[in-house]
Amino acid sequence: MASINYTEEGYLEPGLHSITANEFIDAFCKNGNRAGYEHAVTNIFDFAKGNGATRLIIGGSFITQAEDPNDLDCMIVFADERHIPTFVDCAQMENLEYDILYSSEQMRNTVDTYIKLMSTDIQGFPDKGNTANGL
């Protein structure tokens, strides 16, 4: 199991944290109110893997120590642009509201911009952590 460390404010320590899908589910979907999210999160991971994604980047309140996160923000990265779905996901699955963006390894600036966005809090302060899953 990957070691996940938080700041005093309850955010992941700054940087990218690379963990497996199972480690993510164990860390973020097993405790208290979060247990209800496990099925929806598993579906997102299964969709990414089943469609040839190379990695999944997750940020926002879901990866904090918040007892009741309000959403899951993620980017699914594909090896090639042609594998990117033609739709954008912003919906609710079970009790979880989620925003899913798509990118490719060739679109480095988009991926880097998303990571920077997810590493910034609502007041514009940087250095919040993100999780990345290599599929």
Task: Describe the protein in words.
This protein is of the alpha/beta class and 135 residues long. 24% of the residues lie in helices and 28% in strands. It contains three helices and six strands. The radius of gyration is 14 Å and the shape is globular.
CATH architecture: 2-Layer Sandwich
Task: Give the class-level CATH name.
Answer: Alpha Beta
Class from helix and strand fractions: alpha/beta
- The percent range for strand residues is 25-35%
Unreliable segments of 5+ consecutive residues: none
Instruction: Determine the mean pLDDT.
Output: 79
Number of E-state strands: 6
State the major sheet: 6 strands, mixed
Keyword list:
3 helices; 6 strands
Sequence-ordered SSE layout with sheet pairings:
Elements: E1 15-18, H1 21-28, H2 38-50, E2 53-59, E3 72-78, E4 89-93, E5 96-104, H3 108-118, E6 129-134
Entry summary:
With about 140 residues, this protein is of the alpha/beta class. It has 3 helices and 6 strands. It is globular and about 40 Å long.
